[in-house]
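Quick one - first record:
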Amino acid sequence: MIVDAAKAAQIAALKTPNGTPFAIQKIGHVVLNVRDVERSAKFYVETLGFAISDVYPDTMVPGGMVFMRYSPDHHGVALVGSATRESTRSEMHHMAFAVATLDEVFRARDHLERANVEIVYQGRRRAGCQIAVEFLDPDGHHLEIYWGLDQVDHGGYVRPANEWRQTKTLEEALLHLPPGQKASLCDPNLLRSH
């Protein structure tokens, strides 16, 4: 299906129905198929700082399964060792992790580079206006660490497209802030000169 401007406007006009008998609060967890569960677990634990909550052996789940946490929840990401090939990113586009400060995004970029992780994008994209670093895990899953995602108030106001400020580096994102976004680094040594 091609989404042209008219179709995009139709999609944007969809409204949440009144009376839904439940209210989803957040993404609870994501489970990824990986080729080598041990290799992937090492990446998420040693490179991204996750903690392991539980592990299923191959006798419980073919390929084994690792439950990992980054918050008090038992797991936010789980890995199943059943993939037979690298991810083509055809089912899931990417998974994003929020951090509390902008400094952490800059530190994440430096840390990922030191770990020889492939960074595929850094800076600010468009809608949402978060500042982020995007990278690939060992199976080619596209991941993002971000700060500053726009918040939508109870009235439903969303920043208009003419206020988006796409950039291609973290430093450029700080120089070209969208209206109302307050962003600065506590540690200016994290900035790179161009």
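second record:
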Amino acid sequence: MDLTLTKSFQMENNIDNNKSKVDRSKKMMLWFGMISLTMSFLGITSGYIVSKERADWLTDFQIPEAFYISLFIILLSSITFYFAKKYVIAQQKKQGMIFLIITFLLGIIFIILQFKGFSEIISSGYFFTGSESTITTSFIYLVVLLHLTHMLAALISVLVVIYNHYKQRYTIGNTVGIEIAATFWHFVDVLWIYLFLFFYFVR
């Protein structure tokens, strides 16, 4: 009987250890991915700085008003995701779901505002390519579109979290899914804050 209990205990420990290793691997992969993305955006913004020496550089370019609003929205979404994660981990399912849905909706609003910002740039007479484009606006289009692709990935991760939370798959000690999604969401948010401040000060 004691031998059976010992074997059962060892099996449970092995399962827990394997799960911990898998969870750590997932988090490490996420961090490697975020570091890689950070380096990519730093490279692009470095190219932006170098391009300031060109004769066709716009020194009077104004950041679209929609981008200012989107900055506030994305900051707010980080706050709501923080509370969503907090409530889910605490097993307060209703509150967690409410904040997850709010976060998702704020993400949608952010994307809409980004495209509204594009329309403001176009209405000023600047296009992505062609004779009516400039190196300044082309860089901004490129960087914002790249950021939007990662924002879409972050939105998909929130949808997965909402689905898993609805299915009650997050239990005490088994919340790595929402932890990874929250980390990526905050990363995408910080990335936009960096890009906004960069375009605001580097003209």
